Amino acid sequence: SGRPYSKSQLHVGAFLAGDLWGAIQLGPGIDTSHSLAIVPGTAWTGYLEINRLAFAEALPRCSESRSLGVIFRALARHAPWIEWVVSYADATQCGDGAIYRAAGMTLTQCRANSTLYRAPDGSVVSDVGIRSSRALRRRLGLTDGGGKVAYVSHREMLAAGLRRLTGYQVRYVRALSDRARGIIESVAISYGAMRADARMVRGESRSEQACFLAEDS
C-alpha cells in the first residue's frame, strides 16, 4: 500500500545479516466489531489482524511463513489474552494466501470481491479508503459528506466512474487458544474446495500459470 497502518500495535522486523528486509504489522482491524464475529465471545482486545506484511525478494524462500510462525509462538507465550490472529489474502490482485497456509493458518472464507474498485485514472481504491478519506473522495469527485468519514454507496461510486474489480478476498485465521481452535475448526474450508478462479499467485491465476508451464515443457 505504500504506507504503514496507523492503528497497528505490534511491529516485527525480519533481518538478514543484520539488515532489515521484511516487516509485519499487527493490530486491530478496520472494523473490530465486525472482526469479533469471526470467533464469537472474543474480548475486544482478544485478537490481532495482520495489517501489513512486506518482504523483499532477497530473503530466503518461506521467510514469510517462518516469521509468522515465530510471531504466533511468541504471542502464545507472552500474550495469552490474544486468542487468535486473522489475515486476508487479496485474490483479486495478488494471491490466494499460500504463505498463510504454510504458516498453519486455517482457511475460513473465500468470497467475491466487494471492496476494491478501479478508478477512472487507473488506480485501485477500496471502499473503506473512500469512506474514510475526504481527500480521496474529492479526488474522485464524490460527495464529501462534510466530515472525515462519510457513507458512499456503490451506486455513487459507479456514477463517479469507479468499477468494482472482479476477483476474491480470502480469509485465514490462526487459533492461539483451545476455545478459538474449536470454533475455527468448525468453519474451516479445505483449499481443495476453493473456487478454481479464486486461486492466484503473484497476481496471476494458478490455472493460467499451469497452462504456461505445460506449453513451455
Give the secondary structure arrangement, pairings included.
Layout lengths: L9 E7 L2 E9 L4 H4 L11 E9 L7 H16 L5 E7 L7 H5 L3 E7 L3 E3 L5 E3 H6 L1 H6 L14 H6 L3 E2 L3 E8 L2 H9 L13 E2 L2 E2 H11 L1
Parallel strand pairs: 3-4
Antiparallel strand pairs: 1-2, 2-3, 4-9, 5-9, 6-7, 6-8, 10-11
What does this structure look like?
With 217 residues, this protein is of the alpha+beta class. 29% of the residues lie in helices and 27% in strands. The protein is built from eight helices and eleven strands. The strands form three sheets. Strands 1-2-3-4-9-5 form a six-stranded mixed β-sheet. Strands 7-6-8 form a three-stranded antiparallel β-sheet. It has a two-stranded antiparallel sheet with strand order 10-11. Strand 10 and strand 11 (204-205) form a beta hairpin. It is globular and about 50 Å long. The two termini are 36 Å apart.
Keywords summarizing the entry:
217 residues; alpha+beta; 6-stranded mixed sheet; 8 helices; 11 strands; disordered C terminus
Major beta-sheet overview: 6 strands, mixed
Q: Indicate the proportion of strand residues.
A: 25-35%
> What is the tally of helical segments?
8
Q: Reading side by side through the largest sheet, how are the strands ordered? A: 1-2-3-4-9-5
H/E element order:
EEHEHEHEEEHHHEEHEEH
Helicity, as a percent range:
25-40%
> Helix/strand/pairing class, anyone?
alpha+beta
Apparent shape: globular
Gyration radius (Cα, Å) is: 19 Å
Q: For the residues shown, what is the average pLDDT?
A: 88
> How far do the termini sit from each other?
36 Å
How many DSSP-defined strands?
11
Uncertain ranges: 209-217
